[in-house]
Design brief:
binds adenosine-5'-triphosphate; ABC_transp_ATP-bind; P-loop_NTPase; globular; transport; Rossmann fold; 250 residues; alpha/beta
Amino acid sequence: MTLQIRNLSIAYGQTQVISQINLTLHPSRTTGLIGRSGCGKSTLAKAMTGIIQAPQDTLFLNDEHFLPNPAQTGNTVHYMWQDPMASLSPFLNALDLISEPLKAIHKMPKKARQQRAHELLNMVELDPTCAAKRPHQLSGGQCQRIALARALAVKPQFLVLDEPLSALDLVTQEQVTSLLRKVRTEMHMGILIISHDLQTLAKLADDIAVMDGGRIVEHKKTQEFFAAPKFPVSQRFVEISKYSHMEHSN
Ligand SMILES: Nc1ncnc2c1ncn2[C@@H]1O[C@H](COP(=O)(O)OP(=O)(O)OP(=O)(O)O)[C@@H](O)[C@H]1O
């Protein structure tokens, strides 16, 4: 199963935000998406996942037309929001937040749901004491893990993560990075990760796409990208990532 984006353009009112995007996601592969703030990365992710409507004939699953609707097709393409705290209902505890998609999408009975929710809590390495806590009683990093456990509960074929590590300290970032690698392999998901942090993408992504001014200007295998970034914006990202890596290792 592949998810193909063909010639996708999106405008907000009169303002064109993304133009003629072509991109294909494959199972068990991770694509990293970088680009300057405001270049249209989240807009692309939201269009792929049905949060904003993509024009007809731009999204395809295995060459078949596909119109994502998060309410119905959450298990095909799932979007994990940039701000986990804001995307989680403040009225539910961690366990209920994780078991909600198991009920809504997979119609799992209560006992099986609770058991799976505990397994997922464990998988994202959240302390069991977090199970009964609501988002405002948890840290940003813990909320990010709940959002990830929820995404795994949905068991989508494709997972789109918008800045999944931004609220985490370096140690937790490392843990979530290895968790995402495990998920890709064990659950055979195709993953798109939006990040400003090329060092993280270097560890996670099989290939890297660069957006600039609403277009994908470069898309290469990760090693090739680091060896020879072609466009000025790509070169700048590689330069900055080397510099920040040196700072962290000093
Ligand atoms: N709902 C909306 N209505 C109108 N304009 C919007 C809307 N959402 C985003 N925009 C604008 O579209 C452009 C692209 O925004 P988008 O969030 O896709 O960028 P981004 O690359 O994800 O940025 P960042 O890295 O800062 O998250 C920006 O100029 C933004 O202000």
